Structures are given as structure tokens and as C-alpha cells.
Amino acid sequence: MNSRLALSCGIFCVALLLSAGCTGSDRSLSFSSLTFVTEEYPPYNYQEGRVVTGIAVDILQAIAADAGTTISPDQFRVMSWEDAYNAALSIPDTVVFSTVRLPEREDDFKWVGPIAREKKVLFAVRPSSITVAGPADLKNYTIGVVPNDAAIGQLKEIGVPQQNLLSDPDPAVIIEGLQEGTIDLWCYGEDAGEYFAEKTLGSPDALVPVYTLDAYDLYYAFNRNTPDDLVDAFQQGLDSLKQKDNGSQISVYEEILSRYS
Questions:
Q1: For this UniProt entry, which residues form the secretion signal (predicted)?
Q2: What is the DSSP string of the chain?
Q3: What is the mean pLDDT of the chain?
Q4: Where are the domains positioned within the chain?
Q5: Residue 34, pLDDT above cutoff 50
Q6: How confident is the model at residue 257 (pLDDT cuts 50, 70, 90)?
Q7: I need a labelling partner for 229 at 20 to 30 A (CA). Which of 11, 67, 163, 197 fits?
């Protein structure tokens, strides 16, 4: 099966899955009309048992509560980042998070945020003899990446050849490549990378960051067909959380962040 056909089939399967929670042609301007797709990316979004949780999920629930409504657990779907990203691109009333807002993505979505700011780092297996003094050094290494990761474009811009970027949607497969020596470095979010190191190797310290590529703001990315007033309601709700005192001299937003620190 060629890659274009595989992508089309993947989007069709995701569309069938998401449509199971929809109500046909009814697209009322309500929070319940949306489906939220995401990946395992702690502490922002991840599963505990069958429940989707994390900073970004708690913020969504707080926005809904402030608006006098709720977001059902059934409205959340966890899948690979590539599938989640493509679903929000192509399926109406779909929101993908947590998403880096890049110039080349700007017109593909409607944006709400920022949710938080994260560091993208280059991990190596501990102990490591790899030293990265600057971005130019990265072109000398094979680097594991997740498809559609925001860092891919930046890595190419600083001179990393396409053939040095080894892509897999499963972080555990990339970590195995690090262990086996088929991959030198892994470019990923620092907090999420430590989570997968512990999950896969038994310790968050099994991998060591050897270089910080950049810091990025994370957003909710709404399908372009989402009504503007619904997107605006989420942005106004998020802005309100950042200002609203929770009774302990900090904002509701800050209190949510503190749960995961």
C-alpha cells in the first residue's frame, strides 16, 4: 500500500471512530459538538486507565465549568500524534492538542492558547559520550522523531539531512533504537520524554538531555470549519482562567499547573 493510500485509509478509519460520538448533521454551537483528539504526552495529555487527563485536559474541563457546562469523557480520543493531527485537519468539529503553533501551520487551524510552554530537547541513552556544542553538531547524528512533530522543520533548517531523521509514531520504538544504537538522539519534549523513559526503561533518568533545541508554546488546534464564536468562547475562557483567583492567591490556571509540578 503506498503512503498516500495508507494516509487516506488512516484518516477514513479515524473519521469513522470520531463519528461514533457525533449526532449526525447537528452542529450546534456547544461544547458538546466537539471531539478532542490527542496523544500520550504527559504532563499535558495522557491516559490513566481509561481516563484522559493532564494539564491540557484539566484546563478544558475548567473552561467548560466556567461556562456552565461540561465536556464528557467520551469526547476525548487518544491515538498516535500523526492520526490525531490529521484528524483535526480533515474532520469538522475536531480539536487536536497539545499543538505547537508554527507559521506553516497557522492557516491550517483555528487556535486557542497558549496552554503552556515546553522545552524540546535531544535525548541520548545514559551514560553518553555525545556532546552537542551547538545546532551545527546535530547534522552528525541520526535523530529519532515522531511524525508531524514541530521540531522536524527546525532540525532541517539547521542542517540535519532528511536521511538522518528516523521517524516512528511510537516513542517506545525510538527508545529501543537508542538502546540498540541504530539512533543516536531522540528529539522530544523534555517532560514527556522522561515519562516514556520511565515507562519503557524503568527510570526517567535512563535518558539524558544533551542539548535543548528550543522552547515552544502549546495550543489547542481547532478544525478550520469550527465556528468562530465557539473558538472565541474557548479563548475567552482560557484567558479568564489565567486571571481568575481560585481563593488561594493564585489563578485557577496556575493551580492546574501546580497539580503536575
A1: none
A2: --HHHHHHHHHHHHHHHHHTTS-TT---SSGGG-EEEE--BTTTBEEETTEEESHHHHHHHHHHHHTT----GGGEEE--HHHHHHHHHHSTTEEEEEEE--GGGGGGEEEEEEEEEEEEEEEEESS------SGGGGGGS-EEE-TT-THHHHHHHTT--GGGEEE-S-HHHHHHHHHHTS-SEEEEEHHHHHHHHHHHHS-GGGEEEEEEEEEEEEEEEEETTS-HHHHHHHHHHHHHHHH-B-SSSSBHHHHHHHTT-
A3: 90
A4: 3-115+218-258, 118-215
A5: yes
A6: very high
A7: 11
In this structure, are residues 84 and 223 in contact, taking their beta carbons and an 8 Å threshold? Answer: no
pLDDT at position 8 over 90: no
Query: Picking from 10-24, 51-65, 165-179, which range would have the lowest pLDDT averaged per residue?
Result: 10-24
Q: What is the mean pLDDT of residues 171-188?
A: 97
CA 213-142-86 angle, 5° bins: 70
Task: Say what the alpha-carbon torsion angle 120, 40, 75, 54 is, to the nearest 10 degrees.
Answer: -70
CATH of 118-215, one of 3.40.50.1100, 3.40.190.10, 3.40.50.300, 3.40.50.360: 3.40.190.10
Please determine, for residue 95, whether its predicted confidence score (pLDDT) is greater than 90.
yes
Q: Look up the CATH number of domain 3-115+218-258.
A: 3.40.190.10
Predicted local confidence at residue 21, as pLDDT: 43
Q: What is the pLDDT of residues 149-165, one digit of tens each?
A: 999 999 999 999 999 99
| Cα separation, 153 vs 73, whole angstroms | 34
Distance CA 73, CA 42 (A): 18
